């Protein structure tokens, strides 16, 4: 018995609308994908990558996990980055966090939620590393807001430190790593003014207090 019938119904309508707009849409996509961007974002259901940036299937390669964390030994994320950079040859990697991130808040508070605490430990590392900057804010909401931003910056640097990105730059491949943040409250993206395109830029940014 199929109990999620409404989702299949939605799917049929969606596929039919897409085909009406462009009769060859799915045929073309079935041959190949040529996305120019890799999106690394939070798994939060309110942050649907393609919709936010108005891109169609085939235009955005996506990896999402809780709190958009890039860990040096996470084979899942590293494999996505490698495939995107070396096979699809994307020119941009976007790390996109979001304000109001539950994972970041749990990390900020040091909440005990079970297995996920081990994953969020990486965000706590960001919190501890930036302790003076966060202490400056008296309000928890402001600290949360700032930690969401600081987490993006740290994960951008982690992307840049991967062997995959370092290797691409050594080969002279054009590749920029961006840090953005999305506001669930107004649906708008904000550029966190971090865009790294070389090992030199990475070292300069990493040295910033
Ligand atoms: Co989140």
Provide keyphrases for this structure:
single chain; 209 residues; alpha/beta; 5-stranded mixed beta sheet; 10 helices; 5 strands; 51% helix; 17% strand; binds cobalt (II) ion
What does this structure look like?
This protein is an alpha/beta fold and 209 residues long. It has helices at residues 5-21, 25-31, 49-52, 75-87, 102-109, 116-129, 131-135, 140-161, 163-170, 199-207; strands at 37-42, 60-65, 92-98, 176-183, 188-196. The chain has a five-stranded mixed β-sheet with strand order 2-1-3-4-5. Helix 3 (49-52) links the parallel strand 1 and strand 2. Helix 5 (102-109) crosses helix 6 (116-129). It is globular and about 55 Å long. The protein starts with a helix and ends with a helix. The mean pLDDT is 96.
Strand order of the largest sheet: 2-1-3-4-5
| Largest sheet geometry | 5 strands, mixed
C-alpha Rg (nearest Å):
19 Å
Kindly report the average pLDDT value: 96
SS-based class: alpha/beta
Measure the end-to-end span.
Answer: 57 Å
Strand content range: 15-25%
Q: Which residues form runs of ≥5 with pLDDT under 50?
A: none
Outline type: globular
How much helix, percentage-wise, in residues?
A: 40-55%
């Amino acid at each position: 018995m199929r109990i999620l019938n409404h989702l299949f119904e939605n799917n049929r309508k969606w596929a039919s609308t897409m085909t009406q707009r462009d009769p060859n849409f799915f045929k073309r996509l079935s041959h190949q994908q040529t996305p120019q961007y890799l999106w690394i974002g939070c798994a939060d259901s309110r942050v649907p990558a393609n919709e936010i940036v108005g891109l169609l299937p085939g235009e955005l390669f996506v990896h999402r996990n809780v709190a958009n964390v890039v860990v040096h030994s996470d084979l899942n994320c590293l494999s996505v980055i490698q495939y995107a950079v070396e096979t699809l040859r994307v020119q941009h990697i976007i790390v996109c966090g979001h304000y109001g991130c539950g994972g970041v808040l749990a990390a900020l508070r040091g909440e005990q939620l079970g297995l996920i605490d081990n994953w969020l430990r990486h965000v706590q590392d960001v919190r501890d590393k930036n302790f003076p900057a966060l202490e400056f804010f008296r309000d928890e909401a402001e600290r949360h807001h700032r930690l969401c931003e600081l987490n993006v910056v740290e994960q951008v640097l982690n992307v840049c430190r991967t062997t995959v990105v370092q290797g691409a730059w050594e080969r002279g491949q054009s590749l920029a790593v961006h840090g953005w943040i999305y506001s669930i409250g107004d649906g708008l993206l904000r550029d966190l003014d971090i865009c790294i395109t070389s090992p030199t830029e990475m070292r300069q940014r990493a040295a910033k207090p």
